[in-house]
Amino acid sequence: MKKLVLLVLAVFTVLTINTAVGAKTMTVALDADPVSLDIHVQLSGGMLQLSHWCFDPLVRWTKEMTFEPRLATKWERINEYRMRFYLRQGVKFHSGNTFTAKDVKWTFDRMRKSVDYKGLVEPFVGVAIIDDYTVDIVTAKPYALLLNMATYFFAMDSQFYSGQDDNGQPKDAIVKIGPSFALNNASGTGPFVVKSREQGIRMVMERFKDYWDTASPGNVETFILTPIKEDATRVAALLSGDVDFISPVPPQDFKRIESDAKVKLVTCNGGRIITLQLNQERRPEFKDVRVRQAMVYAINNQGIVDKIMKGTATVAGQQGPEGYAGYKENLVPRYDLEKAKKLMKEAGLEKGFECTMIAPNNRYVNDEKIAEAAVQMLAKINIKVNLKTMPKAQYWDEFDAKAADIQMIGWHSDTEDSGNFTEFLAMCPNAETGYGQYNSGNYCNKKIDELTLAAQSETDLAKRAKILQEIEQILYDDAAFIPFHWQNHSYAGKENIEIEPVINSMNFPYFGDIVVK
Amino acid sequence: MFAFIVRRITQALFVMLIISMIGFAIKNKIGDPVRDLVGERVTPAEREQLRDKLGLNDPFFTQYSRFLKNALQGDLGHSFFYKKPALSVIVAKAPATIELVLGAAFIIILVSLPLGVYTALRPRSFFSRMVMGFSTLGVSIPVFLTAIMLIYIFGVQLNWLPSYGRGETVDIFGNGWWQSGFLTRDGLLHLILPCFALASIMLPLFIRLIRSEMMEVLETEYIKYAWAKGLNPMRIWLVHAFKNTLLPVVTVFGVQIGIMFAFTILTETVFQWQGMGYMFLEAVERSDISLLIAYLIVVGSVFVIVNTVVDIIYGFINPTVRIAGRT
What we know:
The complex is a heterodimer.
Chain A: H1 2-21, E1 24-30, H2 45-54, E2 59-61, E3 67-69, E4 72-79, E5 82-87, H3 101-113, H4 115-118, E6 124-131, E7 134-139, H5 146-150, H6 181-184, E8 192-198, E9 202-207, E10 220-227, H7 231-239, E11 245-247, H8 254-258, E12 263-278, H9 289-298, H10 301-307, E13 313-315, H11 337-346, E14 353-360, H12 367-379, E15 383-390, H13 392-400, E16 406-411, H14 418-426, H15 446-457, H16 461-478, E17 481-494, E18 497-498, E19 515-516
Parallel strand pairs in A: 1-10, 1-11, 14-15, 14-16
Antiparallel strand pairs in A: 2-3, 4-5, 5-7, 6-7, 8-9, 9-10, 11-17, 12-16, 12-17, 13-17, 18-19
Chain B: H1 2-30, H2 33-37, H3 44-53, H4 60-72, H5 86-121, H6 126-140, H7 143-157, E1 170-171, E2 179-180, H8 185-218, H9 221-229, H10 233-271, H11 276-285, H12 289-317, H13 319-326
Antiparallel strand pairs in B: 1-2
Helix pairs in contact in B: 1-12, 5-6, 5-8, 5-10, 5-12, 6-8, 7-8, 7-10, 8-10, 10-11, 11-12, 12-13
């Protein structure tokens, strides 16, 4: 009997101690869950979020868009082609293996083999191991964005991923379709270890006991991720208390969340620009710079931000948002209907013309409504636009085929740098080099191409910013595209969750550092 | 009889062939699955390579015959998104949908029977009028609106019931396949709202059906005779009238259950219920075409098999069916 009492007491104390320490559980509902545990299988926002939860990069972006040491403690430029990274010592992988320079090199070599990452790491020659805790990252040309790229170097456990799995397939194989070892197994150095994962249902992660970053304020022990696709259901799940944190928050529910004392809403600037491209090859009218300008002047993008986006976007006049190297303060939105009409008259198109437009209806926040608003606004300068919207599954094929005169595209620079916008959206389309891959307007200006390429290899950041600003100015004057706004990211959580410190404009919430009171 | 069975089975196979062909014909219209598998940076040339590797660039009949060959061996292809055989994805999602439909069917039976009978017996009472009024309203409200309203009222405002998902489930067969929500309190609580939402579509129909059938039966000669005999009213209503009401209702019920599976698509989407309907909608959005075709084949074959079996049984019971089939 005594033994039993003791046992009960012991169990009881263990239980109370556990709760006293504050083992916090946080349930997060996002609109989708990661498609795989293999971080190199797809380059997407969702996969990068996962990378930050279960792995660590060499350096990462802070809220203020500066670099913060993670697996690299410091770094220095050796010469124009080479940067040296000093790695953190005593870091363990989830498997128990120790992190060293060879894991960095191994990870880089694997990125090379990934269809998705290979474009991103193209400027690099390779990683040279200096000693166990020092590596040099070497580029083919002088490359200004080397540190930006180092945020993509999430060290994978080379020992864990070596060898063959039960199917006789190498464990490091990157498989798009079909089973692979890395699809269901992960070993990184990150704050969370994956405990279980049912795709599309839930993923349970637990705090890594040997996590190196003991200075992190994060206190979430169990992190449960569950995808809820329907906007209304996601909001309801938060309001009813079933989940602790949601993202994205649909603009129409902002008021509802703000009026509820138990939950709070946090938004932050994101870098995704929403634009319309005007196809000059399909529509001769669009070749005339006055017509393009008239169309830009006709679009009341401030109105769209206020009415449709409910203030959850930043109105734009150029490609890159504030904080980016190419941002130029004088390039403001320019809604002016009178001026637009005047320009149309000058171009001899007072009577207007008819053209076609396509836009997705489930890709960007309120994309269909924005497109409809644009159609109405263009009608005021007698441009009759026949709009067709479609789900993203069908949209991109149409977009690539340049199936309409006006096409919508949103773009987020994955280097967090101005040059990337121009490379993909405004340079002359060239199938060989891949530049202008998403330039469905066929806007082509040799000067822009020259400047963009010059900016790539300029390592003097001040000089480089000048070039990027010049590009923005030319695109602005040329009315190369119609800008709407930069989308904001939106998050909502219960009152006891400190969301603010862990979010950033990349939309990588650093849940490892989140504090639950 | 043997000829009849052979003919029915040949017909069934032919129908399956047509379903698979239709599925294959529309698949290229749904979108490019490769798009959903790669990031924005991947070049068109590399996407093309991937398409080649997946065999998506082969001519229609090459792809179709390859599919048929594999299908005959029970392989309906790999889901692009789940990276698993499509058939096993569907099988894993089936229990959730079946439980949802069973729960809804239970609610329909439990609610429509007493209400239908009552409104037939007391057509002029205030309560009957209210029930009929609500049922008209019920028919006209789309299911996703009902679902969101239920979530809002019982999940958010009153906070009585959970708002999404299946909650805690129990593994019935011990092999991880059938995760049941019927056996835990949490699982049952999670079932309530989605089942009511799904039931709301069929409920008005059944109340009305039972009511009109019952009223019809009450007018028949044998009921009048029973009244004249001076039988206890309860006995007349529940034993004589109600029993005969049930026959057509049961037939309709069987058909409607099948239709209810189709309605699960909307209900499951709103409640983030991880069943086949939700899976189907997601697959459309991701252009996961191999999963879509597999789904069409599976659902199609369930219907075809059930109908074929029923027809054959009919043939045994009622020989005229066999003769009618011959002409």
